[in-house]
Amino acid sequence: MMNNPFRGKSLAGGGCKLWLAICSLILVSSCSSGSPGLNSYTQAVGAADEGAAIQTIRTIATAQEQYRATHGDYGSFDSLTKAGILDARFASEAPTLRGYRFTMNVDSSTFTINADPQATANQPAIGTHHYYFDSKDGITRANSKQAASASDPPQQQQ
Question: Which helix (H) or strand (E) covers residue 146, if one does?
Answer without folding.
Answer: none
